[in-house]
Design a protein that fits this description.
Blueprint: E1 17-21, H1 30-39, E2 45-49, H2 57-73, H3 90-102, E3 105-106, E4 113-116, E5 119-126, E6 129-132, H4 141-151, H5 153-193, H6 198-227
Helix pairs in contact: 5-6
Length: 237
């Protein structure tokens, strides 16, 4: 980003992290809490309950509620859906409410195609019946797919760019300032030990002072921009 030629830079930023939660426990494990808190200020986290076909509808609903309670208790910032505009039609608003209420998405995966009533579908076959991956009555896969590649893809990219990446830049710049300050102090000590090189050292110190001043101004500008963003997490956490 700081180079002269910035036209051919490939954007390798990750816009979304699908965090899979085991269906066999009683909610988030300590390692889940630890990892999500490590990730939540770097990327948009979308929690998923894996292998949800191992749960009854009642168990699935209970686990969803438990996971959301733990996320709130541990101050984990998962991806938050933006509010609908007032002029959106009622169908879109209902769709948005359904997506929000489905989190964490309970999903089922399958790499096989089975036949149901003469129609081939992707699913899993059991003795008691067939679980269809793309049947909204069976799991939330369709809702997740719709959200990722249709309704909220651009919002995920915008949050990555405007919040997560800007937070990273501010942290990186603050670390550079600390490093420059340490180098400045080292030069100051060396000039006291070598009076003959004081003029050269003073020039280097002046350059470091200018560099620190420039970074301070950039950091202040970025912090001001982040504070004006209504979706920026408090204290960057």
């Amino acid at each position: 980003e700081s180079g002269v030629n910035r036209k051919n830079i490939q954007d390798s930023r990750v816009h979304c992290c699908l965090y899979f939660i085991s269906p066999y426990g009683h909610g988030l494990k300590p390692i889940d809490v630890f990892m999500m808190k490590k990730l939540h200020h770097k990327v948009n986290i979308i929690p998923l309950i894996a292998k949800s076909d191992t749960l009854t509808p009642k168990e699935r609903s209970h686990l969803k509620n438990k996971v959301m309670e733990q996320i709130e208790e541990n101050h984990i910032n998962i991806y938050k859906f933006p509010e609908c505009d007032s002029d959106e039609d009622e169908e879109f608003k209902q769709q948005d409410r359904e997506l929000k209420s489905a989190i964490p998405f309970a999903v089922v995966g399958s790499n096989t195609v089975v036949e149901v009533a003469g129609k081939k579908v992707r699913g899993r076959m059991y003795q008691w019946g067939i679980v269809e991956v793309e049947n909204p009555a069976h799991c939330d896969f369709v809702k997740l797919r719709q959200m990722l590649i249709s309704t909220h893809m651009q919002d995920l990219k915008d949050i990555t760019s405007d919040i997560h990446y800007e937070n990273y830049r501010a942290e990186h710049l603050a670390e550079q300032m600390k490093q420059s300050t340490r180098e400045r102090m080292k030069l100051k000590r060396e000039s006291m030990l070598n009076p003959g090189k004081m003029e050269d050292t003073d020039n280097l110190i002046a350059q470091k002072d200018a560099e620190i001043q420039r970074m301070q101004e950039m950091l202040a500008k970025m912090q001001a921009q982040l504070q004006t963003n209504p979706r920026t997490p408090v204290n960057g956490t």
